[in-house]
Amino acid sequence: MSDISYVQSDCAVKRYKNLSISYYKRHMGEGTAETAPTSTLDKEWKYLPPGTLGALKLERGCNYVK
Fold first, then answer.
1. What domain count does the chain have?
2. Which of 2, 18, 20, 60 lies 20 to 30 Å from 34, alpha-carbon distance?
3. Is the separation of the CB atoms in 42 and 20 below 8 Å?
4. Which of the 8 DSSP states describes residue 14?
5. What is the pTM of this model?
6. 39 within 8 A of 64, measured Cβ to Cβ
7. H helices of the chain, where?
């Protein structure tokens, strides 16, 4: 199983929200997508605890676009 997600990030205050998520039964986004219902997506910003994998991914993404 795999997924492809589109995330909006605010690097200045280290927060994010998921805009869309598509799930696939096969690896690397192959096969038919099942899209997450909009009711399950983030309406509010989420903040990641420092030192977590999510915080590291956000930091790397923010450094990439600089």
1. 1
2. 60
3. no
4. T
5. 0.69
6. no
7. 53-65
Encoded amino acid at 65, one letter:
V
Which residue range forms the structural domain that includes residue 58? 2-65
Q: Are 46 and 16 in contact (CB under 8 A)?
A: yes
Lookup: tokens for 63: 């450094």
pLDDT band at 35 (very low <50, low <70, confident <90, very high): confident
Whole-angstrom CA distances from 36 to 27, 32, 39, 57 are: 17, 13, 8, 22
How crowded is residue 53: how many other Cβ atoms within 10 Å of its Cβ? 8
Listed as own residue / partner, the contacts of 18-21 with beta carbons closer than 8 Å and 24 or more positions apart are 18/42
